[in-house]
Amino acid sequence: MRILGIDPGLQTTGFGVVDVNGHQLSYVASGTIRTTQLARGDLPGRLKVLFEGVTEVVKRYQPDQATVEIVFVNVNPQSTLLLGQARGAALAALVSQDLPVAEYTALQMKKAMVGHGRAAKNQVQEMVRRLLQLPGLPGSDAADALGLAITHAHAGAAMARVGEVAELQRRQHAMYRSGRSY
Questions:
Q1: Which of 41, 48, 50, 87 is deepest in the core (most CB within 10 A)?
Q2: Per the structure, how many domains does the chain have?
């Protein structure tokens, strides 16, 4: 199975692709989609770049599933709204390519990767490097995306088994450790 992880951001969106064979993880690709070349006020243009960038990644690497980080609420509501719109562009690109999408919070991903939800970015980068046996540290946005893909590789199977036993409704499975899968 090939999993695409997306760490959404309005200026920089990270992506990471891993192959999963049983418990074996293999690195495929990672990188960032940047919108910094556009004017800060050009929100529609930035969202278009994100949508097209995620679509291109899906077409190039042909993942079987995708996972996206759930947005947290910032102190600044305007920042939260902008991040939510970037996340929406990424989600729209994924579902337009008929990919099943799972969602995890940053805390869930960090707990799965490092062992505690308040892990620093460099700790996530190091664990991703070790788990995927990379020669160097991936960038922080790409590492978060790879971390989401790895988290889904491990947690996704358990969530699927729970879904087989009882049909999960949106409200019920959103309560399953605050993760979501559609």
A1: 50
A2: 1
Does 7 carry a binding-site annotation? yes
Say whether 145 sits in a helix, a strand or coil. helix
User: Known catalytic residue: 103?
Assistant: no
From the candidates 69, 98, 103, 144, which is the catalytic residue? Answer: 69
Q: Which long-range contacts (CB under 8 A, 24 or more apart) does 74-82 make?
A: 82/10, 82/43
Q: Give the helix/strand (H/E) hosting 62.
A: none
* Active-site pick, 103, 141, 144, 164: 141
Q: Check: CB of residue 102 under 8 Å from CB of residue 91.
A: no
pTM score, whole prediction: 0.86
144 is catalytic: no
> Residue 141 annotated as binding?
yes
Please check if 69 is assigned to a binding site: yes
The CATH number of the domain where 106 resides is what? 3.30.420.10
7 is catalytic: yes
pLDDT at res. 58? 98
Structural domain span for residue 84: 2-175
Residue 174 has pLDDT above 70, yes or no: no
Residue among 179, 180, 8 nearest 93 (CA): 8
